[in-house]
């Protein structure tokens, strides 16, 4: 479920809060690249934009004591990066995302975003969960406009609607502005959730398996849209997925988490595929199978064994950054690339 906006409150530094919320919308004025959906932007160089510093999550164990889901977890996400986290069920991915969102407190450690330790939910961090938390009595426009007016409380109704409509356009829902959520398909509802998240210009988009409940074709279309929007606006994204191909298509960096309990970040894989990759041809990229096989091998075997077999110089503060070589690797005989699978269903 997407975090309802009325539950998102700002608890950041007051000066920072004034800067973000005091701004009035000016639809006529030229916007900065990050602030105008669809306009190219160069990611600013800020390698520690999100800095996860030694966080832990522990729960009381049934027989007393505590179960450690993960501890001493460190990770940095540069500004403008699209990072996917993959790992087996139960390793703690959603817990990490909830801590990033400020919805859960870590048992230890801290998360610093843009130089500020986070202490609770904020409109700076939009969360899109698997489902959606649309207000059923409001139209598509009403849902998105509600988010915009929460962000810019002094904006006029016309300004709010103008921005809301631009975001609705961006996710391909022009013409459906006046429909209620009940009149929309699952994919359309998820688009409204994305439009709503984008409309508040969050510093970070946090997505927990946002496409997993959708059929393959809708999922592919929405992946394309999210990739187009995020690359063109320089949006910083942290997304959880179980889908290796989705991670390769969308992510700049792919974080591999070992199995829990006491899960670890085994490595951060730099995606070597060109930024201009396309869904239909991605499987022809020279490094595609190298990356795919590396990720699948991790999920099949190393996610289980990494703790015992990790390199001697493994340092949780600096998880290994893996850059896979350009050596072409032939696809395994039993692997059908996902675009081919998707085409077969058309
Ligand atoms: N409130 C809670 N009390 C006790 N244990 C919990 C609680 N919430 C989560 N856990 C445990 O923490 C672990 C990590 O949960 P989390 O939801 O973060 O995993 P995940 O990697 O997102 O899994 P999935 O891929 O299935 O969504 C799980 O073993 C889960 O049982
Ligand atoms: Mg989860």
TrEMBL record:
Q: Where is the composition biased (Basic and acidic residues)?
A: 307-318
Q: SUPFAM superfamilies from the xrefs?
A: P-loop containing nucleoside triphosphate hydrolases (SSF52540)
UniProt entry keywords in alphabetical sequence:
ATP-binding, Cell membrane, Membrane, Nucleotide-binding, Transport
Q: Where is this region: Disordered?
A: 1-36, 307-346
Using the UniProt record, give the first listed, main subcellular location.
membrane
Entry's Gene Ontology molecular function annotations: ATP binding; ATP hydrolysis activity
| Subcellular location as annotated | Cell membrane
Naturally occurring in which organism (per UniProt)? Xanthobacter dioxanivorans
| Membrane topology according to the record | Peripheral membrane protein
Protein name per its UniProtKB record: ABC transporter ATP-binding protein
Please give the coiled-coil regions recorded for this protein: none
Q: Name one GO cellular component term.
A: plasma membrane
Signal sequence interval, chain numbering: none
Instruction: Give the residue spans that cross the bilayer.
Output: none
> What residue spans carry the Basic residues bias annotation?
7-22
Q: Where is the ABC transporter domain?
A: 50-284
């Amino acid at each position: 479920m997407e975090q309802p906006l009325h539950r998102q409150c700002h608890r950041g530094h007051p000066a920072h809060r004034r800067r973000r919320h005091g701004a009035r919308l000016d639809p006529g004025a030229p916007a900065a690249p990050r602030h105008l959906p669809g306009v190219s932007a160069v990611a600013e160089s800020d390698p520690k934009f999100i800095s996860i510093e030694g966080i832990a999550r522990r729960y009381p164990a049934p027989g007393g004591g505590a179960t450690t889901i993960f501890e001493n977890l460190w990770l940095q996400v540069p500004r403008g990066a699209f990072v996917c986290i993959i790992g087996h069920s139960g390793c703690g991915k959603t817990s990490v995302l909830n801590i990033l969102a400020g919805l859960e407190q870590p048992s230890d450690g801290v998360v610093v975003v843009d130089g500020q330790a986070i202490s609770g939910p904020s409109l700076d961090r939009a969360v899109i969960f698997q489902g959606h938390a649309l207000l059923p009595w409001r139209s598509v426009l009403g849902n998105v406009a509600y988010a915009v007016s929460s962000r810019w409380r002094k904006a006029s109704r016309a300004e709010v609607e103008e921005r809301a409509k631009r975001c609705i356009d961006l996710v391909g829902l022009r013409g459906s502005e006046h429909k209620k959520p009940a009149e929309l398909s699952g994919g359309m509802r998820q688009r409204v959730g994305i439009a709503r998240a984008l409309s508040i210009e969050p510093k970070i988009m946090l997505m927990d398996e946002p496409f997993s409940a959708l059929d393959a074709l809708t999922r592919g279309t929405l992946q394309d849209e999210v990739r187009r929007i995020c690359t063109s606006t320089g949006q910083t994204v942290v997304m959880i997925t179980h889908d290796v191909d989705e991670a390769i298509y969308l992510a700049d960096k792919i974080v591999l988490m070992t199995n829990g309990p006491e899960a670890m970040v085994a490595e951060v894989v730099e995606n070597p595929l060109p930024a201009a990759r396309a869904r239909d041809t991605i499987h022809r990229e020279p490094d595609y199978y190298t990356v795919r096989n590396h990720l699948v091998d991790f999920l099949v075997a190393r996610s289980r064994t990494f703790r015992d077999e990790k390199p001697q110089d493994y340092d949780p503060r600096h998880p290994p950054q893996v850059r896979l070589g350009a050596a072409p690797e032939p696809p395994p005989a039993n692997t059908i690339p996902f675009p081919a699978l998707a085409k077969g269903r058309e």
